[in-house]
Write a structure and sequence with these properties.
six-stranded antiparallel sheet; Calcium-transporting ATPase, cytoplasmic transduction domain A; 23 helices; 26 strands; Alpha-Beta Plaits; about 775 residues; alpha+beta; disordered N terminus; seven-stranded mixed sheet
Length: about 775
Amino acid sequence: MKNPHAPDTAGHPVTHSHEHEHEHEHEHEHGDGAAHAHAQAPSAPGDCCSAPVALNPSPAAPAVPGELLLRIPAMDCPTEEGQIRRALEGMDAVLGLRFDLPARTLGVDAPAAAWPPVVAAIEAVGLKTEQISAPPSAEETAGAQRRELTRLIAALVVALASELIHFFTPETLLWQLFGMGVAAVAIALAGTMVFRKGLSALRRGTLNINALMAVAVTGAFLIGQWPEAAMVMALYSLAELIEARSVERARNAIAGLISLSPPQAEVRQADGQWLLQEAKSVAVGAWVRVKPGERFALDGRVTEGHSAVDQSPVTGESIPVDKGPGDEVFAGTINQQGALSFEVTRPASDTVLARIIHAVEQAQGKRAPTQRFVDRFAAVYTPAVFAFALAVAVGAPLLFGWSWTDAIYKALVLLVIACPCALVISTPVTVVSGLAAGARRGILIKGGVYLEEARRLKTVAVDKTGTITEGKPRLVAQSAPGGGAATEEVQAIAASIAGRSDHPVSQAIATGLAATALPVEGFGAEVGRGVFGNVGGQPYVLGNHRWIEERGQCTPELEAQMQAHEDQGRTVTLLAGAQGVLALFAVADTTKDTSRDAISELSALGIRTVMLTGDNPATARHIGAQVGISEVRANLLPQDKLDAVEALRTQGAVGMVGDGINDGPALSAADIGFGMGGAGSDTAMEAADVLIMNDDLRKLPETVRLSRRTHAVLWQNIVLALGIKAVFLVLALFDNATMWMAVFADMGASLLVVFNGLRLLRPARAPR
């Protein structure tokens, strides 16, 4: 780490701080707590839709070179995704899985030598595979979905015909056989895949919704309830299709990020012409032009032009940001006014937007505590209800004198009601909706575990530089030695000399004064003291307190003025000529306009805030007072911050907010690490559990509120799913429920919890 008191080659000492070196990178390793359970918990055996709702990169995403690309016709639900994950997760050669459920394709990142075992493992769970060279296009996927919908509507019409035959034809053997044949056609149209999956599950000794439906429909058909069996299968398959399309809304809320970045960019050629080129083929260092109203295809640094840029797709910030030469721009953002040219700084695969999408893809494998609870519950619930239904079918006639037909029918109704789909789909769709809602607002949450656990935070430890403050010095005060403002001539001299230095303090003075530059001759620097030069034939120095003392130009009045500024954490630089000191300039790292509001909102949420900083106590107390933090701990090295966070954890869950290498140990020790590295910060991207994309600390209380909303919706869904099933279980036992009603109850419960989870995508009301 850089010595906090070592002089800078530009002439100014670096004072008072152990603060951040933003360009370093570090590894972020989590502890063993639940909040850092990065590995995906295995799905419960026999569950329905219990795998996490996976992000579809794009229906027409190209295959990754060296990737095994499979089409799996039976993979149309997270149930199958969970089965495949469990089958492959123990294989060392498998480095990654890329699911696209609407297209029914799977990409497996594994060496070619491992492909046969991968295929064998998938087919061992009853899912047939077809190796393909490229995924289907968006049009092909849409066409397949239309054909599936047409097939199910046809099945529903045929099932309705079987009902009409049952009600309006004579009860003769011929009509009965004809009606059964019509019902069988409806079942075949709607349920062939259901029966395949159900039989496969039963052969493996597991129970899922497909197994329950296969048993229920077969049983109903055999006891003479063939019209109901046909209608139940048609309605169930149609409900599954509607539910799958509803779940896709949550996926697409995040997958839509992909479409933000245009596929082509206008690139300057060697001969000076501008030609359209595929964004993925544009090299780092190339110049790209973006016209008003167009989106940036790549990350870069502006070289020509001025414009306002809408960065809300990346940072969540609704106010456009002015951009000019030297400013960074990001893929997916929108150029609003003038034309801009920029130099590409990252390839298409490594833009901020690409890394956001990758991080969200990974996030969906990190299961929230409620998800794990529901999966464990479903693993017990489904076999228990199956056993109960079997007991009703066999025991009720023996113990209560029910007819065997009635008992079996009630048992079959119970099997349909027992479907845990509404219960287990409620958690992943809610979590994905919460992740998507955060991403839309510039809050990148790297897993459902962090989304749900943020509500438990009792304390937030906040770094100072770059988090509460801007992280860069600004001129905050200037005066003549006796008080009052320095003359325009003196300001012009100071600005001219400061403008020749690349030191941050000198640059802050030059920028803050914004005076007309004067010619400077004989410019130079004194290491650890400042800079000097001749203006108008007269020698001047722009230096620190020590240099002015060495020149014998310091007075008690100046000492008092400097002390007043230093007590507020400011760095003082003086302009002196041959006759004495001409002006005094105070530079400081100023607080962000949003920091005080953020601390106030955290307090309103009942969360205690503590500042942890490597800066000196006077500066830390002054900044703390400005934003409303009374508990300040200063002069902290990285180990000290780590110790402080671990001590705070004994009093409840702790969040740590930081943006540099010095904060790494503390970020790792906290229950949730919040990265404030700004858009494009590699350190923050890699280290944080939650990344605030626009450095606005107000996103922190917003994350807590989103977490609380998500948790509330999760439990609303659990109560809805179990409550509806409990009501219908009672109705079924007392002869007040039919298989029709059971299917509608299951379908209704599933859609209710899906749509309730999707409510998280709507903007939350602003806090009062």
